[in-house]
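#struct-queue
[09:14] JT: dropping the first one here, sequence first, then the structure tokens:
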Amino acid sequence: LSAGQIIALNKFRGQPINSGVLTLYFALPWRPNAAEEDALAWGMADVSTFQIEVDIEGTVITPVLKAQAYKLPVSANMGPIIKQRRFVVPVGATGLINFTTLPRDDSYLALHAVSANISDIEVIVDGEQMIKSTVANLHAGQEVYGLVPQSGYTHLAFDRRNRNSDLLTMTRQRNGQNVRVSDFQLDFTMTSATSFTLITEQVGTRD
């Protein structure tokens, strides 16, 4: 993600922003209790290397970068974590845009469209309508739970109640067995024919 996108997502979760500081969360301090906060934390006991790559803006003349980490003296393997990725949603006209190419592997915690040109969203999983709402109503419902929708973004937070268990899973029960969904559709109603970046937050084991 870009630094601006990381900051926007941190603000959405109600986290403080300090000038000159870019915070990367490997646990979830906004969760209501310690168990929820640590459930998706990054354990390092089974990790041999850990790297962070930072691209510095080309116009910066004398960049200075310092890193500081807060760690707990606890030995734990890395379990499920939140994985953030970016996709481009192509938009060639106003009106309904159907997007069907997101991965159907890990469960989804949230989706963040870097666009203010979306008026309505519908989510369909294996033919079942999961969400159909205006963006205004979605954001109003998020604010009830303390989330802070950001200007220029359209947020779809499946965990708006601030619970790790509130996920959009990519499996369904069929004949007593969990099977992978075969169809995952996002329908965006666009007010402008402008392509946009879609940030996904999925929960699963590391790749």
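[09:21] JT: and here's the second one, same format:
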Amino acid sequence: ALRTSSNRAAVQVLRAVGQTFRPEFQNRLDNIIVFKPLTRELVRGILTKELGRLYERRGLRDRGWAVEWEASALEFLLEKGFSPDMGARPLKRAVQRYLADPLAEMLLSGQVPDGSTLRIEEGEGALVMAVG
């Protein structure tokens, strides 16, 4: 069975499978699933979930500090991590590189005391985290 919302895509995939693989291998395929490219709005939802997961990590959830996001920071992460062809993996890498790693360094150096507010915004090709 072929699951897809586009009949044209299904025909193209079946044709490619038929031209690429021998009948013996084709017979072993139970399903062929055609995925649509991600939209920017869907990736925005994935980003929200990724940020929620980040703050649920053991070393962060009990800190007692607040986080204020500027829209520019979210747009920065979307710009760095949005790839309709590559799925959500580039987004996870962008969150790790531009947010999680620098935040971990700040926490380890004692720059974010419990009870403080962390303000995150975009600035000069990076995320700027200010403690208030």
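[09:30] RK: nice, looked through the second one.
[09:31] RK: Strands lie at 2-3, 32-33, 66-69, 117-123, 126-131.
[09:31] JT: good to know. The chain has a mean pLDDT of 87.
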